[in-house]
UniProtKB/TrEMBL annotation:
Leader sequence segment: none
Family matches, as InterPro entries: Aminoglycoside_PTrfase, CcrZ_PhaseVar_Mediator, Kinase-like_dom_sf
Highest taxon of source: Bacteria
Gene3D superfamilies on file: 3.90.1200.10, Phosphorylase Kinase, domain 1
Pfam families: APH
Keywords for the protein's UniProt record, in alphabetical order: Transferase
One function term, GO molecular function aspect: transferase activity
Name of the protein: Aminoglycoside phosphotransferase
Length: 343
């Protein structure tokens, strides 16, 4: 097992931000230890201690900052935290490049991230149970998220697809004017593969829109790495894409990314849909469409991140935020994985 490479706080934070944290009452120094945490595909996270408490420092990447509204992210994070569904957000830098939040310590033997998988809209029957009561934890959590006050930023599924499609078209046009590179060609081929699905995507979106009575609070990325388990309760993190959106999207994200048995999936689906005020009675038939759209959006995201990485870098860079934690090829590999799950 490789040793975690720690850093000094000054190597990951500007001195001005450290000074602001000290003024806020935290006992940090430039030499405080910052231990990298297992991060996702977008940003970098560090564990730091002020002498009394552990905190999570997040350094936002330039690419993810271009795909989300940081002010909306902070508002929506606080909405969830105020209802006990997320860690408390303690500090946000003026440029929204750095966040400091409460550290939720998971038990070593109970890491929710261990449930991470990738499933299509129609998975095979699975009788294995990795976490026996996962469904009874997920159901009240999903209900709690669905009942949160609706965010100010509204992004329905059709609008989201149109936004992604238009951004990708601009990138494709710009790439075509640049000198030849194998990565750029691979990106263009992946983009064409996505566009070939557009007729199906429009059908899935139409069916989703038909079963929705009203949009609701949506986290938009409830994969197991964005959920923390502590003392019998789930908490969510990473609110970059949280918005007011379709009431099926969050359960679709859970079903797409959690290693649940068939029985657990059925329990969760039936419990979530039963009497849901924002869905029509036949909404269950549109759940496969929601799962397909989840993977479509993941594929779009991976192409956008690939285009902003240093080895392609056609999107505008924001030098006030951190570098992407992965390179273009890794994001293009993610695209291949995601698009293979669309059926």
């Amino acid at each position: 097992m490789s040793k975690v490479q720690t850093k000094t706080l000054l190597s990951v934070l500007p001195a001005s931000v450290i000074d602001e944290l000290k003024l806020a009452g935290l006992n940090f120094t430039y030499g405080s230890v910052a231990t990298p945490l297992a991060h996702g595909l977008s940003n970098q996270n560090f564990l730091i201690n002020d002498g009394e408490l552990d905190w999570v420092l997040r350094v936002n990447s330039s690419a993810s900052s271009q795909l989300c509204d940081r002010q909306s992210e902070v508002r929506n994070w606080n909405i969830a935290a105020n209802q006990g569904l997320a860690p408390k957000l303690f500090y946000v830098s003026q440029d929204h490049a750095y966040y400091l939040s409460e550290y939720v310590q998971q038990a070593p033997e109970a890491q929710w991230g261990s449930l991470l998988t990738a499933k299509p809209a129609h998975p095979l029957i699975d009788e294995s149970t990795l976490w026996p009561d996962a469904e009874t934890l997920l159901l009240p959590f999903l209900r709690g998220i669905s009942r949160l006050p609706v965010p100010e930023n509204i992004m329905g599924v059709t609008k989201q697809w149109q936004t992604y499609r238009d951004k990708l078209a601009l990138i494709a046009a710009k790439l075509s004017t640049l000198p030849y590179s194998e990565l750029a060609v691979q990106w263009q081929m992946s983009h064409l593969e996505l566009l070939a699905l557009e007729d199906d995507i429009n059908i899935w979106l139409d069916r989703l829109n038909a079963c929705s009575r009203s949009d609701q609070y949506s986290h938009r990325d409830l994969n197991p790495h964005n959920l923390l388990y502590k003392e019998g309760k789930l908490y969510c993190i990473d609110f970059e894409y949280a918005c007011t959106s379709h009431p099926l999207f969050d359960i679709a994200g859970v079903l797409s990314t959690h290693a649940l048995s068939t029985a657990q999936r059925h329990f969760l689906i039936d419990g979530y849909l039963d009497g849901h005020p924002n869905l029509t009675p036949d909404a269950k038939t549109a759940l496969p469409d929601a799962i397909n759209i989840y993977w479509v959006f993941a594929a779009c995201w991976s192409l956008l991140m690939a285009a902003d990485s240093g080895d392609i870098a056609v999107a505008a860079q924001n030098n006030d935020t951190g570098e992407n934690p992965h390179n273009s090829q890794e994001y293009l590999d993610c695209f291949d994985d995601f698009v293979a799950l669309i059926c």
